[in-house]
Write a structure and sequence with these properties.
Blueprint lengths: L1 E9 L6 H18 L3 E6 L6 E9 L3 H16 L5 E9 L1
Antiparallel strand pairs: 1-3, 1-4, 2-3
Length: 92
């Protein structure tokens, strides 16, 4: 089973693209190191305080894929510099 999530986030403290990218890079690196998922910034690369992160996992069952994505979403919520605004899950 393949499950993808598009997570739109707001970064309130970013005052430049450089600050935004440092936050996003740190978050994405920690997600990749902590979980066995693929992560990429999908949209809003040129906006300072907004981003969309794509996360994809492949698992042998729907339950495992769903648990993995939910753990990643909880991990994203643990970062104080990010606020998760909207999340869209899609089975492929």
């Amino acid at each position: 089973m393949i499950l993808s999530a598009e997570v739109e986030c707001l970064i309130y403290d970013a005052q430049s693209l450089k600050q935004k990218r440092s936050v996003i890079k740190r978050v994405m690196t920690r997600i990749q190191n902590e979980f066995n998922v693929a992560v990429s910034e999908l949209e809003f690369q040129d906006l300072w305080q907004r981003t969309t992160i794509g996360i994809v996992t492949v698992a042998s069952s729907k339950v495992i894929a769903e648990q993995t994505i939910q753990q990643v979403l909880a991990f994203i919520d643990s970062f104080p510099e990010l606020e998760r605004a909207e999340t869209v899950l899609e089975w492929l």
